[in-house]
Amino acid sequence: MKRGSQQTYEVLKKRIIAGHYTAGTQLKEIQIAEEMGISRTPVRTALKQLIDDGLAVAEEGRGVFIASWTRWDIEDMYRLRIRLEPFAARLAAERADENAIKKLKQCNDQMAQGVEAVGKDNAAIGELQAINSAFHRLLLETAGSQRLKSMLETMIDMPIITRSFFLYDIEDLQRSLQHHRDLVMAVELKNGDLAEQIMSVHLLISNQRFMSQRLDTL
User: Fold this and answer.
1) Domain ranges of the chain
2) Which one is predicted more confidently, 30 or 5?
3) I need a surface site. Which of 51, 111, 152, 216 has the fewest CB within 10 A?
4) Architecture of domain 71-217 in CATH?
5) Listing from the earlier edge strand, what are the strands of the sheet with 63-66?
């Protein structure tokens, strides 16, 4: 993807994640191009990438629309993530340097502050969810696998898109934070087996929580 198309894609993706566009909203090529001050070509390429990522759908004769997440979409995405991200955690433990570990710890410190803030005001949950996503992205970057990164990035963003953290209580959030701390411990120890197992448990619990609280309503 060319630079202009990539930048357009990132802007549109961030808007989807932030909830700027709701499910079913039409993404109009001309309107986006005029708004961003660019030609239609990079917009067209960016929209194709959003479709490939499952964030948008093309309807013949109608255009491109923000995807709606069905029960099966969410279940499939969780299952794929549970199979791939533990391997990324293993690679991160094997390849992390001191700088990467420092960044992961800083992210956990921010998450601890976020959990405390949510305990006082539930409105802080959106920011906490963004911090959680940042941690998983840092771990993925540390894994150092471009192919794995391309497969997992959208899956890591999925909890933000589906607003899954809004279903968590304070105990769930504290448990998630502890898992993150355990993951960093495994990375520091360069113990790939342990990192892989912790990530598997982390995602399985997250999946179970989400399914029990949300999926039955979809």
Assistant:
1) 3-66, 71-217
2) 30
3) 216
4) Up-down Bundle (1.20)
5) 26-27, 63-66, 56-59
